[in-house]
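Lab notes, practical 5.
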Amino acid sequence: MIDIINSTLGIISIVAAAITAVLAYDIHKHNRLSKPWFAVILAFALMVARRIVGLTLDLDLYENMADMVNLTENLLMVAISLLFIWGFWAMRKNFRRFDVVEKHSTEKATEFNRTKK
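Output from the prediction step:
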């Protein structure tokens, strides 16, 4: 019974991660936050791959290669984490820069309006 539940949850997580990757790509097409956002998309896609690798263990498809499958899954998790860190770090830096630009623009517009009067 637990095997069926684990397999079902594994399949659901693969589908959910794939949908997330597609949605992230769709957002990327509209906002073009470039490389940082693409790193996040790639991380979501690797989550699908990682979950597929994990599902092979759940289904005992490669019993004789369990150690190699575990290693592959762990390497994918490290890659996913690094991509998320890089992507979100760079996006955070961009958003902070946007805040500074907005603040300076508001100050300049206010100053311009004062001198105009």
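Observations recorded by the TA: The two ends are 77 Å apart (CA to CA). The chain has a mean pLDDT of 82.
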